[in-house]
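Following up on my earlier thread - several people asked me to post the actual chain instead of describing it. Fair enough. Here it is, all 97 residues.
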Amino acid sequence: MPKTTTTTYDVAEHLRTPEEMAAYFDACLEEANGDAAFIAKALGDIARAKGMAQVALDAGLSRESLYKALSGERSPDFDTILRVISALGLRLHAGAT
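Reply from S.P.:
Thanks for posting it. Predicted structure:
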């Protein structure tokens, strides 16, 4: 019987277009249930897909601090979230439930 091998799935490898990135972020916003660290991790996935160094530069942050802020292990400041969203070319939308 052939041996099955597994690999780690990295969503950043599958986010190729701005539309895919926006759809992924929108889906994560819906699933987050108020979990800011979850949203930060989703932004980290998108930032890795775009190139973390360029996103850090565009957001006015160091690459190291961006990795920490978007690791999903903590909830970054809202100011950081807004700067990253802008650097990624994304927008937040509000709607009634």
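The chain is about 55% helix and 0% strand. That should answer part of your original question.
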